[in-house]
Amino acid sequence: MSSQRSILLVEDNPDDVDLTRRAFQRAGLTQPLDVVEDGVEALDYLFARGAHAHRARVPLPSLVLLDLKLPRLNGHEVLRQLRADARTRFLPVVILTSSDEETDLVESYSHGCNSYVRKPVSYTEFVEAARQLGLYWLSLNRAPESGVHG
Amino acid sequence: MSSTLSWTPATDPRRFRHLLLRSILLPLTLLLLLAVVLLGVVGNLAQTQEQARRSQKTLTRVERVRQLLIDRETGVRGYLLTQDPIFLEPYQAAGQRLPRAFEELAQGLSDEPRSGAWMEELRRRWREWERVASEQLSLFQEKGEWMALVRSGAGKARMDAIRMTLDTIAEQERQRANLRGIQAERAGRVTLIIGVLWTLAVGMLLAWFSRRQLLILARDYGASLAQVRAQADALRASEARLEARVAQRTSELTTANRELESFSYSVSHDLRAPLRAIDGFAQAIREDEGGRLSSDGLQLLTRLQGATTRMGQLIDDLLQLSRVTRAELKSEPVDLSELASSVVQELRQHEPGRDVMFSVQPGLTARGDSRLLRVMMENLLGNAWKFTSRRSGAHIEFFAETANGVTHYAVRDNGVGFDMAYASKLFSPFQRLHKSTEYPGTGIGLATVQRIVHRHGGHIEAQAAVGQGATFRFTLQEALP
């Protein structure tokens, strides 16, 4: 039902981008993966602003994978702004980061993330994590059809 | 800059003693001298007294001689008038006693220079009187003209002469006694005046010395007080400087600590990304090009991936170590026995093939941070689990002992143990006592354990012998705030 909708990956490390893309492929996820490299661009993409103004008539992604350490605007701030806006309030956001810090966890959840996943170093484990994420958030989970542009 | 905080009294004790001694000794000496003088005066007075007594005695003796002479004269006169021989009795008795009375008088006058002349005159006149008296008695008994002799007044004249001499002696003696009394009185008065003056002088001297001493003491006390005040001020200033320095150091240290934390935090996180890339791309090569690689090439890929796994573990352990230091400590009741059982259950799930006997003393509870205490137990029991892996009949125990009122918890195993010579390295990060090929690990676990124990106000120590297992004993301060 949401096969045309994309997954947004907010990640500044090209290695991680490639590996994530590869892991999604290996996990059998067919949704298109859009990538933005910093927090400002992520907000532009989601709110169809600036370079992403053309997205005004395109539906929101079905899932946002958000890193915390980002150039310009960090993941916590992006999440806070998404949750403050009615259009993106219910958008499923999964924090995908290296951090295992309690403070990051608490802050992410208090800003309303839907899930928090720590990227494993082992690629095998990473593929497994991507597979489970896709399976859960794209197949099992149901989110309200809110904030569709246009 | 260092200030020595020694206090020297302004008055040197030796100087003070000297002062005291001088101010006491001098008046004391003067008083002693006065006492000696007074003693001499008193001796003099006593001597004068004795002389007065002797004068009195001499006067008595003069009177006695006079009385005896009167007896003798009246005896002769009575006999001549009454012709009654009874009147001769006093005459004869006095005649017998007179020589002795004269002798005594002479002795009493021995210290008088004129006594010899006086006594000689007295004796001569007495002999003359005796001759006249004897002549009268002879004439009376021979019925001669004795009356004519009496009438001639020869006897009376002689007796009068004797009386005159005796009067002279008595008068002289009286004068002598008087003179001595006057002299003694004058000496006494002079001594009294001198004594009073002397005492006054000594008193004034004492007062002067005391005043001088008090002045010196007061001056010294003031100086000492000023010194003490100055030192107290210096101490306060130094204390304030020290506190300021401590505050500055603390602030510097806090800043450095925070910088170090953020450094290790970001390094640990940023280090994981390239590791993930290495492992991921190695896996990609394995999947995409695996068919074309030799078995040696595939082996190298395996080692590459093994190294990334190991480094990932190192980073995770380091993160945990730094987290143990930073985390705010909670104080809650923790069931250590239950904690140990649950950790062992996880270990069993992770390695179901191992046959390990686990004994836990039930009901061991403590106050502390449950999350950190769990990390501690994971490391301690994980160690015991690891170092018993190469023996059969592995046995791990968790129990508590009380020594000197302090509860010691212990994790004991019967594994490979270690040489106590290297025990000091045990709790330092990255220090390993076994080859990592034999027993895998990062060498950070026990450092983490020690930090957790220290943060709980306790201490930890290990006892072991090679091949005979190891025991880790630790305490936890039970009453954490």
Would you kindly provide a brief summary of this structure?
By secondary structure, chain A is α/β, with parallel strands linked by helices. Chain A is built from five helices and five strands, in the order E-H-E-H-E-H-E-H-E-H.
Q: Mind explaining what this structure looks like?
A:
The complex is a heterodimer of chains A (150) and B (481). By secondary structure, chain A is of the alpha/beta class. Chain A has five helices and five strands. In chain A, strand 4, helix 4 and strand 5 form a beta-alpha-beta unit. In chain A, helix 1 crosses helix 5 and helix 2 runs parallel beside helix 3. Chain A is globular. The model of chain A has no long low-confidence stretch (mean pLDDT 86). Chain B has 481 residues and is an alpha+beta fold. In chain B, strand 6 and strand 7 form a beta hairpin. Chain B is rod-shaped, with a radius of gyration of 65 Å. Classes of the chains: A alpha/beta (150), B alpha+beta (481). At the A-B interface, helix 1 and helix 5 of A face helix 5 and helix 6 of B.
* Strand line-up in the sheet with most strands of chain A: 2-1-3-4-5
- State the largest interface: A-B, 19 and 26 residues
Q: Could you tell me the number of beta strands of chain A? A: 5
pLDDT averaged residue by residue of chain A:
86
Strand content of chain B: 5-15%
Summary tags:
heterodimer, A: 150 residues, alpha/beta, five-stranded parallel beta sheet, 5 helices, 5 strands, B: 481 residues, five-stranded mixed beta sheet, 70% helix, rod-shaped
